[in-house]
User: Which sequence fits this backbone?
């Protein structure tokens, strides 16, 4: 009797042969990969050896020491030695963004042993008086310490402490930005400095305008800022003719401007600028 070999054993033999060949090729690759990974994770070549191995990009007010401290390092190199392949870039990013002056950050590896930290700093827009100390505030309402040696030309922003919640605070800051954007350049071009802006009343932007020794508080309301500033400038020559010392000007009433002179007696007990006090100057 003749026994024929089935087709299945022949196919099985081919499969086993292919597996054997694959194993022979893959085994050195797997071993080599393991050795390479072990080398990369343990070799000093891939370790952050000193503070100089942290590259900082985009900073102006955030110092290198600020970044190093956020990373648990010092400028003298203490805390160095981390392998960059084992460093969590996301964790480093969160640590850097915890700094008040950092608005956002990105962190990348630069082989063989450097970390590159790119930051976007916050942009201050005004001064704040916080407990008698001069601070800065950005467009998101974030309070910032004034950097040593830095110089800014901003008004003092008041009234944020009257905000009921963070959204209300941001809305007041946005109103301040709108006000400065619409009248700041025109006031400066006319020789007036906007010294302070008070937003305690969100419906009344109160600005202190200064020219030389003259200081006037102006009520602008919450709209039509350029038009109302123009009304203020048109009013000035008339007021100057009276030689009155003006304490405040209220521009909130359409078609009418109310002028309040300085009074020698306590507020509310002095005489008006004219017999039409309260009616305003049209």
Assistant:
């Amino acid at each position: 009797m003749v026994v024929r070999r089935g087709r299945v054993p022949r196919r099985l033999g081919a499969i086993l042969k292919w597996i054997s060949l694959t194993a022979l090729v893959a085994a050195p690759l797997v071993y080599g990969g393991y050795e390479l990974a072990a080398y990369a994770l343990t070799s000093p070549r891939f370790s952050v050896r000193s503070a100089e191995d942290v590259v900082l990009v985009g900073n102006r007010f955030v110092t290198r020491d600020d970044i190093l401290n956020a990373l648990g390092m010092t400028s003298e190199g203490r805390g160095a030695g981390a392998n960059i392949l084992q460093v969590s870039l996301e964790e480093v990013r969160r640590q850097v963004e915890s700094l008040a002056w950092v608005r956002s950050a990105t962190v990348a590896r630069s082989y063989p042993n450097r970390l590159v930290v790119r930051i976007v700093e916050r942009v201050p827009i005004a001064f704040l008086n916080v407990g008698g100390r001069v601070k800065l505030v950005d467009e998101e309402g974030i309070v910032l310490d004034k950097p040593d040696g830095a110089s800014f030309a901003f008004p003092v922003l008041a009234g944020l402490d009257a905000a009921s919640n963070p959204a209300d605070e941001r809305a007041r800051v946005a109103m301040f930005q709108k006000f400065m954007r619409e009248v700041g350049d025109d006031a400066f071009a006319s020789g007036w400095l906007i010294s302070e802006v008070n937003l305690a009343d969100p419906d009344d932007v109160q600005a202190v305008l200064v020219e030389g020794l003259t200081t006037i508080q102006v009520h602008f309301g919450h709209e039509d800022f350029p038009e109302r500033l123009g009304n203020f400038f048109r009013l000035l020559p008339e007021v100057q003719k009276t030689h009155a010392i003006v304490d405040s000007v209220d521009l909130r009433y359409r078609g009418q401007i109310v002028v309040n002179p300085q009074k020698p007696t306590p507020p509310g007990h002095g005489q008006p600028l004219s017999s039409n006090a309260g009616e305003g100057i049209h």
